[in-house]
Structures are given as structure tokens and as C-alpha cells.
Design brief:
The protein is of the alpha+beta class. 51% of the residues lie in helices and 13% in strands. The chain contains eight helices and seven strands; from the N terminus they run αββαβαααββββααα. The strands form three sheets. The chain has a three-stranded antiparallel sheet, with helices on one face. Strand 5 (106-109) and strand 6 (112-116) form a beta hairpin. The longest helix is centred in the C-terminal third of the chain and has 20 residues, at 163-182. It is globular and about 50 Å long. The relative contact order is 0.17.
Length: 191
């Protein structure tokens, strides 16, 4: 059936994503282009994942507030949640992230993944970032999420990721649904 085939494709995507996340890289955040050009090595610009995540966070909150997408109370609440969850750094090693992992960026040929595109947002970071991005792009549809996570493996053990990152996704989810509802859309979106 079509449903069974789709489930198998999402499971394959989970396995493929796990392979991508096995590429270990130094530092975090956007790639240091000089390092790539001069040394042929992928390396992030930030020393920690927390540093990268919080780089423009305050500015993003201000923009949302100025554009009346959130009020002052919501701005403080979001800031408190995110900075509270991003406590001492537990992510010691970054991995390759697509940065825009979504179904529309995956191409298949003969029921096999032919490629994942849209790598211009790729970064070095915590694997939960790509997973959260994909899950929110899957509109929380369990028929998409469960096989993907089964293919990825180990989700029930927090993927070996930081408790902070996992907690951030769980905490921000209700905020994003509330936030996007205020924009007149029902599509959940992380950030």
C-alpha cells in the first residue's frame, strides 16, 4: 500500500540522516570559510553550541516584538525559556547538520534516496537541531515521525544528545504552536 511505502521511505530518511550526523566536525555554528579554503577542513565559527544558538537570539526577539508578533510578556517568556534551557554546555562535539532538513529537500529515485538538497544553511551542531526541524516540518504527523525516528534509531535514549537541547525542543514546541497561531497559520514551525 502507499501508506506502507511512505512509512518505509521515512524510515530510510531517518537512517540516511543518522549517517550524515556521524560526520564529526570541530567547533559549532556556521562554517569557517577560511578554514575550508586554507586547510580543507570543515569547522564552525563558534566555540560552543550555546554561543551559536544565542548569537542573534536577542535580535530575533526584538524583531518579533517590533513587528508586533509577540508582546513584551511573550518576549520575556521566550527569552527565559531559551536561556534557561541553554545552561552549561554539554555538547562537546559538533556534527554536520543540513540546517533545512525537510521533505521537500529530499529526492528519491526508484524508492531510494537520491539526494538531499538545500545545504546552504548547513552548520556544525547538535543533531537534535536537524531532527527538530524535520519533525516540525512534518507537522507533527506521527505517521511521518515514527518511521523517521525508528530509522534514525535511539531516540528513546535522547539520541545521545544533551538534555538541554532535548528539553529546549519540548519546551519551545507549545510556544511555536501558540506563536504561529497568532500569525493566522496552523503550521507549526520551530523559529
Amino acid at each position: 500500500s502507499t501508506k506502507k511505502k511512505l512509512s518505509l521511505e521515512f524510515e530510510k530518511l531517518g537512517k540516511y540522516t543518522k549517517k550524515i550526523h556521524k560526520v564529526k566536525l570541530d567547533n559549532f555554528g556556521q562554517f569557517n570559510i577560511s578554514e575550508i579554503i586554507n586547510n580543507g577542513k570543515g569547522k564552525g565559527l563558534n566555540k560552543t553550541w550555546k554561543e551559536y544558538i544565542l548569537t542573534n537570539f536577542g535580535e530575533h526577539i526584538k524583531i518579533c516584538y517590533r513587528n508586533k508578533l509577540i508582546d513584551k510578556t511573550e518576549a520575556f517568556r521566550i527569552e527565559k525559556v531559551v536561556t534557561g534551557v541553554m545552561t552549561e554546555e554539554k555538547i562537546k562535539e559538533g556534527v554536520l547538520l543540513n540546517g533545512d532538513l525537510a521533505n521537500h529537500n529530499v529526492f528519491y529515485r526508484s524508492s531510494r534516496i537520491a539526494g538531499i538538497i538545500d545545504w546552504e544553511d548547513s552548520i556544525v551542531g547538535d543533531s537534535i537541531y536537524d531532527l527538530a526541524f524535520w519533525i516540525t516540518g512534518a507537522y507533527y504527523d506521527e505517521e511521518w515521525i515514527k518511521p523517521f525516528l525508528k530509522g534514525y534509531g535511539g531516540f528513546e535514549n535522547n539520541l545521545g544528545i544533551s538534555a538541554d537541547a532535548f528539553s529546549l525542543v519540548q519546551t519551545v514546541e507549545p510556544l511555536t504552536i501558540e506563536f504561529t497561531s497568532n500569525l493566522g497559520t496552523t503550521t507549526p514551525a520551530l523559529w
